[in-house]
Amino acid sequence: PSSPPIMTGMGKCIGRLSVLLDYYPSAQFAGLHVAKRMGLFAKRGLELNLIAPPGAGGDEPQLVCNLQQAYDKEDGGCLASVPRLAVGTVEQNVLIPAVARGVAGKAFATVFQRSPLALGALPGTKLASAADMRGKTIGMHVDSLELMSSLLSLSGVAARVTQVQRAHKVQELLAGNVNAIQIYDCMEALELRDLLGEAPSILRLCDLATNAPEGRAIPLGYSQVIFGAKWALRPLAARAALTAFLEASAEGWQMAQANPAAAAAAILDDRAALGVVTGTKVDSVEFQQEALMRCLPYVMQTDDEKIGTINPEVWQKATYAMAITGYSPALVPQCNSLDTSLWKYSKECNQSANNSLITDGVQVSESMRKEATIRAGAFEMRVGRKPSLAIISVGKGHPHGQQRKTLFAQDERSWFNKAALCEAVGISPIEILLPENASFGAVHDAIQTLNQRADVDAIILQRPVPSTLDADVLGSYISAEKDVDDERRSSGYADGGELMASQGIFQESRDLQLDAALTGADEPLARPPTPPWLSSPAAVLPCTVVGVMHLLHRSSLINHVCEGLTVVVGRSPQLGAPLARELIKANATVVVCHSNTSFSQLRDLCLRADTLVVAAGSPGLITKDMVKPGALVINCGTTFCPDLKKLLPDVHDDVAHVARFVTPTPHGVGPTCAAALTLNTLTLAEAAARRRDLETRHKMTVSRELMRVADNVGSDIPKWSHDSCLRTDSPIIRRTFARASYRDASKLIADMTVLAERANHHPSFSINPSRTCEQEGGCDVVVELSTYSERAVTLADVALAQRFDALA
User: What is d(CA 387, CA 429) in angstroms, rounded to the nearest whole number?
Assistant: First the structure.
């Protein structure tokens, strides 16, 4: 905003802050309003500017980052001697998906310690638990639809969730169109009470999360999170200004608690300053005071000594729940979404010390198995069948598989008994057993059959295969949508198109701009709609890589990894290379050593590593004289010795004397790898189910579009007629263009081809279909249009037909 700050400092100014609220001035920001009225910000040398919330919620993370970029460009922003900063407030379940999509927002404090999100129903409605929602219709805001669907799915409750407009949701409730609506257990609960004349029935979703069955991940987190642009939280002057802002806000909350009436008056002052006047009870001191009393428990009930701190463990647990329920498009590492050092949670040091107590991967793998069980149950409820994994075995299988299974893991936890592993978590195994002498063609045909089966969600080819077969080539034939161990890319056989799609390399927007430039049109030529399920499928990483990343995230060790230098020893396409890429995505600084790295270089780099990940497959390669004291060491490489009946790790046992943390062998990475197979299977199954849902929705959209097309054919392009293709029996539109000569007909086709190429939509042409002499009847051109991917006529066909009509 161009307007100057509404406060000036009493002493030396140390920072200028613009605060973008995600709701209008109200009791939920009482600490800020009181601190502003009492001069607590000015006392600390801060200038403060309050910004009214945007019209549509959910965009706050991007808006704050955009505002910070504007400040940086205008006058130095966060790098200025007196930093100019943009901060905002938003729900954690809005910030995390935004960060997962690439928005550079980062939280550093919070207003509420838990979410006030609730469901409100008419008085007398039974609404005490999730079970009471069974069979009901629930009205949610557009940005909470998926959240409510996830909560219901995880609670095992079948209910209908529908979108309601914020301004009309109460009318929808009163009309009986919905049984409950989304409200916040602060102001909205009171507004609904005043409207109905008595207290509504309320179910707090934070209570639903607290009472969830053991192991169920509920994607509710902190509410009214305070965040800024990631890069703006680093400069020392900016950090000092933000700390002063948080100190003043915390003191404001203490004052609000001590004198609620004065706090209510401060809230009304700021509402008036921003032009927020409703003419209802909301504008009264009594209403705001009562709303404040409902907000105080959400603010003050904290297990820390400071108001507004964020417990990193609680934060990451909610972040993780958002990822596994699909509410967030990806799992966001804590270091990417939360700055734990600015307004430090006092118990964090004690929690970090507890990390050293985690000595193996069994504990982590058990939590992964619990997650898999929950997701498998939710999938079965949604789809009507269990998720499935096809396991292809050729010949006798692994020579030491039975021995290793007996020595190191129970059947339902062993990589070498994948059928039992899957059944234990609710995944249906489909075992395909082929003889030792099976030909390449036989294995290939088995894979292709499974690729086509709709009841098969994932496929894995057991290794090793007989020496007469090439496992890499065979693995490359597994469909990308069902490749549970990333066989295609780890073997190097994925084609360039798939790799480009997986990296998000798309050209369409540039092509559309080029179309507009060539035609001189205000808008580019219409293109036929691309079915959304034809976009790049959700890829999964190799199971061992997934296991290692879960080990780091679930034990909070990922924070240590991101703070220093990480050295990965090994670059195999199945483990070392993809693991290094994932660590880089998590913001680690990574160096990769490999077979061509000299031993002296390897030793020097290992001694510098704060985190050492070893995946070389060379027993005893890393010894204690190669490890930096206090380093984190993850051993991924093991070699089985059948004579000793032992797994020999790449990391020598003496490393434990100098490292802070070493994964043991066995029971280190291995258990997480086996559990990752089940999670990858579920990821692919859920992605396939989403594609089917999208296809169904798209067909419904196309059906509605066809109705509009029928109208357009009769009005916008009256000279075109409906017909069906003789070859495919699909609907088409057809028109005959009369020309005096064959030359004129050929030129017309050439002109139409130019338009068709620019639209990337290609018609069928027939020239002189009546086979008459041009001197007698001229030369006709028959043009047929249809959208092949839809087997239907779409608006893209109508648009191109209009272009062709202009040439008539």
Answer: 9
Q: For the whole model, what pTM was predicted?
A: 0.53
Q: Residue 172: which residues within 8 A CB-CB, separation 6 or more?
A: 139, 164, 178, 181
Exposure string for 620-655, b = 16+ CB within 10 A, e = fewer: ebbeeebbbeebbbbbbbbebeeeeebbebbbbeeb
Residue 392 has pLDDT above 90, yes or no: yes
C-alpha 595 chain-centroid distance: 36
- Angstrom CA distances, 276 to 280, 427, 458, 462, stand at 11, 54, 54, 65
Quote the tokens at residue 315: 């934060």
Q: How far is CA 651 from the centre of its chain?
A: 35
Contact, 152 vs 161, CB < 8 A? Answer: yes
**Contacts of residue 253, Cβ cutoff 8 Å, sequence gap at least 6:** 30, 31, 34, 299, 300, 307, 308
Tokens 């086979």 found at: 771
Nearest CA to 182 out of 115, 277, 279 is that of: 115
Q: Which helix (H) or strand (E) holds 785?
A: strand 779-785
* Contact of 361 with 672, CB cutoff 8 Å: yes
Contacts of 297 (CB under 8 A, 6+ apart): none
Least confident of 272-281, 356-365, 408-417, 750-759: 356-365
Which of the two residues, 717 and 596, has the higher pLDDT score? 596
The pLDDT tens digits for 531-556 are 333 333 446 889 999 999 988 887 76
Task: Check if the beta carbon of residue 226 is closer than 8 Å to that of residue 246.
Answer: yes
